[in-house]
Amino acid sequence: MAACEVCGNDYWMAFEVRTVSGDTHTFDCLECAAQKLAPICEHCQVKILGHGVEVSGRFFCCAHCARAEEGDRGAEIRDAVGARPA
Ligand SMILES: [Zn+2]
Ligand SMILES: [Zn+2]
User: Fold this and answer.
1) Does 45 lie in the same domain as 26?
2) Residue pLDDT, tens place only, 15-43
3) How far away, in angstroms, is 43 Cα from ligand 1 center?
């Protein structure tokens, strides 16, 4: 048994997440893990749960938000989800 560090729930299926910095965190569910660890889009402030877009160390939820903040350089950013038009 381990307690979730976000909500405190002591749950038998709690799990650990190790981040790139080597820190280990304990959560009872993915929502709590996202609450603690997911980066936040600098443009629209949603939590980034998918791949997202990283530009110069700034995180965005999608290409649209990256273009909105990064101006000219953002024009090169493309979303790469879904079928490519023929
Ligand atoms: Zn929790
Ligand atoms: Zn966004």
Assistant:
1) no
2) 999 999 999 999 999 999 999 999 999 99
3) 27
